[in-house]
Amino acid sequence: MQAAAPYDEADVIFHGGEIVTVAADSRESDPRPEAVVVKDGVIVHVGDYQEAVSRWQGPRTQVRDLAGRALLPGFIDAHGHLGGIGLQATLANLLAAPDGDVTDIASLQAKLRAWAKTPVGAFSQWIIGFGYDDAMLAEGLHPTREDLDEVSTTRPVLAIHQSFHLGAVNSLGLKKLGYTRDTDDPAGGVIRRRPDGEPDGVLEETAFTPASEKATAGLPLTALAALFSKGVTSAASFGFTTVQEGGATLKNLKALRDAAALVPFKIDVVAYARADEATASLEEDPVGASQEYHRGVRAAGVKMYLDGSPQGRTAWLTEPYQERPTGTPEGYRGYPTIDDPKVVLDQVCTAYARGWQVLAHVNGDAAIDQFVEAVGAATEEAGPGDRRTVAIHAQTAREDQIEAFARLGVIPSFFSMHTYYWGDWYRKTVLGEERAANISPARWAVDRQMIYTSHHDAPVALPNSIAILSSQVTRRTRTDQVVLGPEQCVSALDAVKSITIHAAHQYFEQDRKGSIEVGKLADLVILSANPLTIAPDEIKDITVAETIKQGTTIHSATTAAVSSEDREPGLAVPTDYQWHGCC
What we know:
It is built from 21 helices and 23 strands. It has 583 residues and is α/β, with parallel strands linked by helices.
């Protein structure tokens, strides 16, 4: 009988860098392990390097010297839109610096004209761009129908605001939508108008949604089919090993599963169906929620939409905006997406009864009040339970609302990058200095020892993990470079936990993801530097060197992560897939 080998041969041994385990009880002062060993996609050793080599190194074991770089758990997207990330990479880039170079209406027009001549743009029914921000345009205004008529009068044109809650169309676009001076504003939306009552081209919320649906449905089928694959590639390049498709229509949820059935996703995708559609469905189980992934995809629950965008000044507040948009009445506070609180309560109760996790888009504190009331009533009806309900964005959450979250077991997931991208806009236009200082109030959650997460909400922002970290630690604004509410800054470790172990907890996956511990999946990311040990203002300069999913590299900064012959999921997705906006 042959003697057993003195070792179990591992696939990879990582050493020679700063290993940040991010265990739930970890502290910044904790000693760093010397090595991490991976076998069959699972972490089997965290600790001494010599023990790792003697116990796990065999002839086929790859020994990886990190060369001083940092090894962290793979990042987990607490809220975003996979198809939207792909859409972001497909449309004309109307973003301002540092993610683009649009500075005024003229440069916006030039980007749209150029995109219209690209292979995708030339075959698209609409000319479409994404990401303009009126706060960053020299004119300080949204483009109008006349501005977009200068791009084209023979094709409909849509310029999508960076919030994805507003947009502007040209005259032909208005005609395609059937919007005239006689068209009433839809519930939960606004058609902005000129003094003569004619639409000026700018559309808010539910008035904007049909424009985004019609425009994106008119993209070439090859572009629609590639949205998922582009989303996967982009997310992986920022270190994400788990992403979200947040707020999918039932049709798109099926398309996501169909894509995975053809080619498994290389990163895990957690999907949430639109709550209004899912709770009204006559199907026995329209969501199919599960804790298990099937070929890289699982549905977890539903997403509700209760208000709009603070930067677009459509979020629902309890106090008036600092400066109200043109044409709105004195004391304007935005507006709810759902007027009737009974409808909100019914959506939450239905989800709880069917075992669906609930995510709710709530930016304004009035919308948060509406949600807290519904969650409280639904919890009383359903009884106690570990539901991990999530308040998405929670930009203007008051301290008493954070306390209500703690009492009800609601996890706040902050869009922390608002402090960078729109901090100055909040200070001067949206909320004023005092209220703006407390947007994305993560410190209030930390002080109460709550679990909170942070997200990128792509395509509203790039799926930039490093920006998520930097924005929480420094809260430095984009233009004026001021620290917005320094009392709300958190430590680098808290920031890292918000996109690793805490995000895993949000997904009920903390036992298999989110930290570097024995028995967990080898979902890892290699960074150019350790965010816990460098100066806070240097975190923004960290780069993602490599992203590893269950021991396999899916992105490398030095080599092509995906060859031209390596087909990503989505390339053969059913052609009825349609991106549905509202982030």
